[in-house]
Amino acid sequence: MLCRKAIPSIVSSIIELMPRLLIAAVLAAALGASADIVTCTCDVTRPESMEARSCGLCREAEKQPASVKFFFLKDANPSKPNRWLALPRSHERSIELLGDEQRADLLAASVEKAKTLFGDEWAIAYNAPSVQTQCHIHLHIGKLIPGVETNQFITATKIEDIPAPPKGEGFWIHPQGNLFHVHTGEQVTETVLER
Length: 195
Description:
The protein is an alpha+beta fold and 195 residues long. It has a single domain, classed as HIT family, subunit A (2-Layer Sandwich), CATH 3.30.428. The protein has three helices and seven strands. It has helices at 6-33, 56-62, 100-118; strands at 70-74, 84-88, 122-126, 139-143, 154-156, 170-176, 179-186. Strands 1-2-4-3-6-7-5 form a seven-stranded antiparallel β-sheet, covered by helices on one side. The radius of gyration is 22 Å and the shape is globular. 27% of the residues are buried.
């Protein structure tokens, strides 16, 4: 049983903690409210908006002929000399916004490019929108780091069976014999690729 003298002490301790708890709650709410680190302001109808660094891949897409569905770029980051990017010509922000057929076509083109570059040691990674620094959908293509395989994957027999990652998540894909291992539930996925 609490002593009556201890109650005022407990109450004053709680009152002292209230500002800290309020600050922590406000910070948690602010972090949760910002689903994407990149606030995408890229708008091809407003050329001034395309000057932002986060619009760099959108600018590259605009350089492509209108008839091109997908294109590839060597990763411009000097710390990733062995990486390529696969991009759609269209300007969706996140891969789950692509239709099933368009997503499968992007993945098929990416797999073909990956096989050409890395044989059977390829992987494709898509970082979650919350950790991307570019507004334009892009897949990272590279050589899979040996030994990074986990047991958290689904198996797909063909590209059309590869699902979009759950909203807000990334995914990475690599071959396993004639199958694909699709890893989801992660934010930063490109770390499975050699630099």
